[in-house]
Amino acid sequence: MTTVRQRRVGKGTEAAEDQPSEEKNVKPDGKNRSDHTGGKLWNVLSVTVGGIVAISLGLLTSVYVATLHENDLWFSNIKEVEREISFRTECGLYYSYYKQMIQAASIQQGLHGLVYDNKTESVRTINILERMNVYQEVFLSILYRILPIQQYLEPVYFYIYTLFGLQAVYVIALYVTSWLLSGTWLSGLLAACWYITNRVDTTRVEFTIPLRENWALPFFAVQIAAITYLLRTHLQPAQERLTLVVIFIATFLFSLTWQFNQFMMLIQALALFILDCFDMLPTAKVTWLYIIQISGLLLVCVLQFFNNMILGSLLISFNASVLIVRAIQKNLKKGSLLNRLGKLILHVLLVLALTLVINKFIKKILNLESDEHIFKFLKAKFGFGATRDFDANLYLCEEAFGLLPLNTFSRLSDTLLFYVYILVLFLLTTAAVIVAFRNLSGPYQVQFMEKTEEYTITLKPDAAYNLIHTVLFGCLALSTMRMKYLWTSHMCAFASFGLCSTEIWRPILKCVHLYTSQRAHMIKYSVPIIALLYISYKFWPGIMDELSELREFYDPDTVELMNWIKSNTPNTAVFAGSMQLLAGVKLCTGRTLTNHPHYEDKHLRERTKQIYQIYAKRSPEDVYRILRSFGTDYLILEDSICYERRHSRGCRLRDLLDVANGHIMDGLGENEPDLKPSLYPRFCEEIKKNLPSYTIHFSRVFQNKTFHVYKLAKHK
């Protein structure tokens, strides 16, 4: 806890950029040459100023979140153990490998310790580089060791400043995406301002620094910006090749730094598939993007010692299926409307069926079960039957994996972001539906176009991609709150592009019979400026107050626990307890763990369920036998879990364990009819009574207001 202290050519596309159309067949006299030179100078000046603004905003964002982090914890003044405890849950686990590499006698020894790790999971040697996405920690630790900065910068500051620096990359990428879509850097400025003023819903980097998404999302934003540029018309071959290289690098880095990369890129692949089916993107470019996704993921697979979860990912199966089926269906985009619709439906069914067949085949060969908990969770979440599966219910009961709270929209509306986003989304979705129908109409396309051109907007490929991207990731965010950061940040770029685009203002003005080119251009600049003034007026004082509010880290019970462990237990001691706490134990003390929060492994999930019997209704003999089977020397019990009140009945950890064990839950309320009373009381409560049946196996060696530590007897 903390306390306050004082102190846009192709079907359905538009080749023209978002600029006034020039008159044709004009004689190249001196005046026109002068105008042309002046136009080039103006473009250079605009790009220069826009670039400077982008970099400045990026750096300011980095400083902003770094200051918030310092002010919230007084990070520069607290002890090392307190700094490490501030890296809660899995954040602490990831940071521990950076610390381990820094403290190793050599880089080679540090790498060997990660490849042959026997301290993260007791009585088992695992390959951390294969299991977890920690190459960023390895790279940073090596960089820290070889750079002459040890005397000036502590390892922890080198680490957190790198993460805060990536926020600059993130904001610049969003700025560039909006600029590319609208044709003016003013939209980029608005996107960055929206990102900052909606910080609560766009990022959580300042309090979950080592979290994998904080490493990955800046690279994902760079990839989206590069895809947006790739989908522009009239690119030179050299520009196209260079952009493909940037996309590959960004895709690779995104995949390398986050274990959920395959699921995010699957949604991206679905967006490309939908647009390609409706002939809204150049097929050749879409093919390259499919190949880049596969190759980037496979390269990560190699670096992660052929991680089975990557090989069995739906993304690889889906992209391979699309390429195979498209090679078979060569005349997919020819014929009348009904003919094309029939072929399109068949195409979709073939792709989905082949995806499932390939994925099932791969998983069967590799005996892959690492991601089964995700599919169990999704099955239960979307109402395909109730489940008593402990792992699925553990996710279902967490607020982060629930539906997006409604108050999110009120916060986004306060900055006008959500209102603008909905307007832009409605207009571009209408345009997308008309363009898709026109593309499928075949011979009737021109006739239809003549009838609708005056009243609708057209849709450039880059705008079409960003539209489907935001729709799909919006659906993901609405269903799973933790994934909202993928949507809300892109929402800033998408909404600002719409507000600064004549593609949006043209149909609005035509509807009220007020359209002229000059008026549209005046509005596309004046409205964003008004929005920026409003945001500055309303939120600048609040940001200043936020930056002046000083807090201090305060968690004396956990500090006392970590200090006791370091002083009173051997370095080889094995600790059991909750996943979240044990991550901190490893970071702060270096002791061996029985389980940890990185949940993407079947054996670990089974092990965690067994360890958690300490909070179930089990006999002391059963609990002792389970703990000793994992080599446990010390057991840490937490009152906050044993007597949990944060979740409602049915979602408390002890309730999940009771249901999984077939026992009736505690407290008033209904129970399923087949659940029965347990023969034993709850272990975490009964052990505190010091009954002989418990003291023969467990002896209390430490306690404070939050934690109770028991040493396990070593019976022959």
From TrEMBL:
Domain of life: Eukaryota
One term of GO molecular function: mannosyltransferase activity
Region (Disordered): 1-35
Protein localization: Membrane
Compositional bias (Basic and acidic residues): 21-35
Keywords, in A-Z order: Glycosyltransferase, Membrane, Transferase, Transmembrane, Transmembrane helix
Pfam families, per database record: Dpy19
Membrane-spanning ranges: 41-66, 156-174, 179-197, 217-235, 242-258, 288-306, 312-329, 341-362, 416-437, 487-505, 525-543
Gene Ontology terms: cellular component: nuclear inner membrane
Membrane topology: Multi-pass membrane protein
CDD domains for the chain: Dpy19L3 (cd20181)
Record family assignment: Belongs to the dpy-19 family.
Protein name: D19L3 mannosyltransferase
Organism: Urocolius indicus
